[in-house]
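Researcher: I'm preparing a figure for a lab meeting and need a structural model of a single chain. I don't have an experimental structure, so a prediction will have to do for now. The sequence is pasted below. Please return the structure as tokens so I can convert it later.
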Amino acid sequence: MTSTIERFAERIIVIVCLSVPTFALGASSTLLTPENAQKIELAVWKYAVDTPLLLRTIDWFRELTRNSTESAALAELSRLKFMQAQLESDKERRIQLFENAIETADQALALNANDVRGLFWKAAAMGKIAEDSGIINALRMLRPMESMLLKVIELDEHYENAGAHRALGRMYHQLPGFPISFGSNRKAQMHLKRAHELFPRDVITRAFYAELLYDSGRKTEARKHAEFVLATPVADEDAKEFAEYVGIAQEVINKTGRTAVRLGHRDSPL
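Model: Understood. Here is the structure written out token by token.
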């Protein structure tokens, strides 16, 4: 995996490059200036270890976008709200916060139906609500999520480290197949393989891919991906988010019958 500094720099570069939505290329200004984009990126990266910074950034950017007609800026506000929701331990309050993130994403999409970030973070928030709200609501949300993620791939398959490919791969793998639902290991393989091709050092993709490969009987390949995840140092800022993926990788290691050494956290570069 790239170093923590490199990953942070990559995130900033991506968001700055995307700072002006396609429909507004002729505009004289954007709320997502490089300076503002960097503030957002820092708050997102440190959300799990510096909640006050995240909340201050949300307040600041909410005010900045109050009368905005810039879809990309509103989509970034949705992203910030998504991070806030992930920190909430109370289930009902957490669902409410994810719904708030969806409402903001909808504002962005009302301005530009092809806003990649609006589509992605709306789908991500819907996925989190589906996890919390039971099978009926989950089934209701899954097809719209699939459509949004496929649209993200059509528009920019690289966004969020191939996040749409990764999310679809996970969805297709976890869901039961026909006639109960639309799960498909073949589709899961296609999307996770592509995500890995685009971002081979992405820990989340490697964890999901390891589990899929194991379930498909490809245990040696699964083991290699799981070992990569466990051998990757994780910064304190990423520890909370990555704990789930480390757990998936460790489970694959356990099932293959041999132990692996988990490296410690990497110190923050900032």
